[in-house]
Design a protein that fits this description.
five-stranded antiparallel β-sheet, 0% helix, mainly beta, elongated, Jelly Rolls, 12 strands
């Protein structure tokens, strides 16, 4: 700090030191969608038919598949949303639960639930959950517990937030 003014009008000049430039950090990401509508027939897993963003190699998905593969240990964040509506002649009230599963095991907090009370009802369901992967490859799926629900414009985004060796 220095004073570039005079004794009556002080003007302080501050210099803030700049640190070293670190390495660029660009997290791996995969965003996949299912444009249009799919029925959760037989309480299946949801599939995704359009990979809209793929960056890096730690997260992979084959078009039309219901499985996202995690190829590297680390911490990940999964974000899911979809519009849900009833399909066919379903008795009301009816509920649906969607769960994120890692290697077939439900991830705590990776759940969305809705109860339908009217025949033409539609609702948006979503969840966002961090999870850890310690053994690869790992399979990530979105499962549905009711077989008479339409899922429209579904999206699943998975972001690697921290590599396993960090």
């Amino acid at each position: 700090m220095s004073n570039s003014g005079d004794e009556n009008t002080a003007v302080f000049d501050f210099v803030i030191p700049r640190g070293d430039t670190g390495a660029c950090c660009c997290n791996d990401i995969l965003a996949t969608t299912f444009a249009g509508s799919q029925c959760s027939c037989n309480a299946n897993t949801l599939s995704f038919n359009n990979n809209v963003v793929v960056s890096g190699n730690s997260i992979t998905h084959q078009f039309g598949s219901n499985t996202v593969k995690i190829e590297e240990d680390g911490i990940y964040q999964a974000l899911f949303h979809s519009t849900v509506s009833t399909h066919g002649k379903i008795s009301l009230p009816a509920s649906v639960t969607v769960q994120l599963k890692l290697n077939g095991v439900s991830l705590p907090g990776g759940t969305a639930h809705h109860t339908f009370v009217s025949p033409n009802e539609a609702s948006t369901i979503s969840f966002s959950i961090p999870f850890s992967v310690t053994a690869v490859p790992a399979n990530l799926t979105v499962t549905v517990d009711n077989n008479c629900i339409n899922f429209t414009d579904s999206a699943l985004t998975v972001i690697q937030t921290c590599k396993g060796d960090d």
